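Researcher: Here's my situation. A collaborator sent me these components and asked whether they could plausibly form a single complex. I don't have experimental data yet, so a predicted model of the whole assembly would be a useful starting point for our discussion.
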Amino acid sequence: MTAKATGRLALLLILALVPPWAAAVAQETAGAEPIMSCGDCHEQAAAFVFNPHARGSVKEGVVANATCESCHGDGTEHMESGGETDKITIPIGRAGADATCLTCHDKTTARRSHRSGVHANSAAVNCLSCHSIHHAEEPRALLVKSELALCATCHSTQTASFRGKPFAHRLGHAGMGCTSCHEPHGRAGRQSLRITASGEIACASCHREKHGPFVFEHGALAAGDCMSCHEPHGSANPRQLKRATVAQLCLECHSPTMVTTAGSQPPSFHNISSPRFQNCTTCHVAVHGSNRSPQLLK
Amino acid sequence: MTTSRPGLRWLTLPLLLVAATAAAQTTEIEIGYRWLDLGGSEAMYRSQINERGGFILRAFTMTSAADSPLADRFRIDATDLGATPAGLLRLEAAKDGAYLLRLAYRAADAYSAVPGFANPLLSQGIVPGQHTLDRDKTSFDADLELIPGHRFSPFVGYSFHRTDGPGRTTYFVGQDEFRLTSDLRDTDQEIRAGATFNLGRVYGQVTQGWRDFRGREDFALDAGEASGNNTVPILGRNVTISSFSRDSRTGVSAPFTNAFVAGDVNRRVRLVGSFVYFSAETDGMENEALTGSFVSFPLGRFFNGLTETIGSRATNETWRGEGRAEIVLRDGIDFIAGYRREHRQLTGAAVIDSLFIDTVTFAGSGPGDLAELHDAKNAIERDDDTLSATISARALGPFAVRAGYSQTSQDITLIPDPSQIVLTGNASGTFQRTVRTFDTTGTYSKSGLTLGASWRHDQAGQPVFRTDFTDRDRFRLRATFGRGIYRVGATAEQIDQTNDQPGVGLDSTIRQYSGDVSVNPIEALQLRASASRFKVDSIIGFRRPETFAIESSIYAESGTSFEGGVSFLRPPFTFDVNGGRFENEGTTPFTVDRLRARVVYDFLAKTGIAAEWSRDEFVEGRATFGDFDATRFGLFLRFRP
């Protein structure tokens, strides 16, 4: 985006701020009727009006007690005792999540399953390991910290690859994170990868031009998928290939030996000791597929 | 390059409307300017990082709740808009029980001009490579759900993606490669509509969508590129090009249907079914004209020009159906079993009408134009059947265990056009492969100590590709301990895959280890450090194309990463400093050093200043064409009105 466009955007945002700010000040100065609520003692209850769990229960800027009680149980004894903590339910760990979170968040879909997912509620990993209802650092999905930092807590080798390798998806920019491709509540293995609305692999969400259909489709895509050649978690190759050089990646498949496998026909007599032939995509530019060239030359 | 961003305009309108209705809100803005001091390869810096100097809206957040007829809550987030490689603006507005609206606008730069990529002239010091691009990627998504939470809740959605901008590529023709410039404009639009239903024990969703892709790319000969990569005469003739033009148009129309339904038979049994159908049809048209001096071995002729018209059509029909049962054997112990079938059928046809101008045989006879009409056809059919069963015990005190078995059978038939086949017998036919997978995971967590171990074993039959494994094992161990102010963790992962078949000899091992520690001596202060190491060793036999001798393709990487940081958060003063080094040895040696520092001081209750400093240094182990050293400094004003 240009600096001019950014300036316009900033102006619009400032214009947008003025009316609600004025309204808020007016309401504050007019004074509000005191209401007996959880918020009388718990400051965090005031901020809870913005919490997704308060949807439909905010009246005149106050969250209804029933909303708090849906997770913390009946608060009458707690209030009457002057705030004794053993007279209120505080959900902790797997049991706490089972008794609160999963009473509502237990819908199973085609891809996600809270019961059988890789992050199914257990003592080691449970809802409250990743989500914080009252102290979320990342408001979207109420995550305890930013998505990348959160996933790095356990998946540190993948994070190191993203941060260290020179060519990787730009996590943390433009809303891209681990969950752009992975469904954290998904099932094990490939079933934990997101798919598009049309059922295609998550890569197609952004790289739509690579998915054809092509008249001449590269066999690696036809019988495999993007990960046949690419390493999405970071690579030394500028195209995030699994090998540092293109020719090495191609020739490991395109080699006729004793075994009959798909695509094992050779590149015809190219002299790969010559720089001209060390990068197959110099000529085979349409490596994902072509509508014009059987040899993927254009 | 400057292009219009239509999504941004559409997003600001609802922003103003909804903001005006708000009563209670929180808002944060951070906006400022960044300077860049770059030494070394700008092309490599932009290909990897591309953080530029200029104005930046670092962050904007507005959250509001009100009891208005238009909306009772909305949230706006904007990050990194301006001189950044990628930015985002998101808006969510809702009226409880009435609607939920989500809008998102993303802008990203796609830049690549790496010195060593696709560059046969690197040894002569000519950089960058011959494949470069400098494109804008813009996307806009809108989703509106009506009466959310009701028994029947309809929704509509729209997505717009555009990629446009210049690039450079190459074209192989007449026994040489010539560098071309390209101007690309791809637009993809998707509309979708459907409904979510929730009838208590039965719920699900049905989506019907349409995708439309329009691609246009125009090519021209790059300046000064008439002689091509090959400067050696072929059959005594210099291959050169004097004029070139190509315009290429592609359209893809793709309706799709996506549905799932889940039902609770009773408290212990849940059944889930899903179905996806996707049908895409491509129409392509291309016109090309070139003149020069060329050689064609397939024709056995020299020629001085070529005009080519190509019309193409391809269809891809895919469907996937799945059913599974989730059964609660007892509280905390679940059994899941399912079956999935996926079918994909692709057919393609292209009519390639070529006219080779002013041809003559290698012997110098038969001068004249030569027309060639190629009616190419291609087909691929693929079926994947997967049976799976998993048992999960997640509430055995501090223990949790999961074990699963699955079997996937693939049946792939390839019927390529004869023009695609170099050697008969390998490129076409039916390939069948069955992969049996057993995986298990166990965790233990008590008193701040968490241990986890997982093992997955895959055993497969005949490979489809040479690089397919016949046996693969994946191990993962993870331990963390946290008590008081300390937290330490360690991870070890290993993947072994082999294919012992004669002529293949695949043997690959990937090992990754990492350790991390963090200390919070006081609540406001955190110190953290991590180290990780990975090692890749892969060997597979391959046939060298110029000699046909069997040799070994050896790939090795050995990388070490160190990171550390300190954070201090005690308003009005906060700072965060991070540093890291990544050293890679093996096939592609390089070193990456990164340093980041950010200091924030709120000199008024709702106003502050933030300063950022960062340094990225990239050093290649062999060639030095791509080395760079970039330092950035930014000053930002922060408001919380």
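Model: Some features of this prediction you could bring to your collaborator: Helices of chain B lie at 6-20, 42-48. Chain B is about 5% helix and 75% strand.
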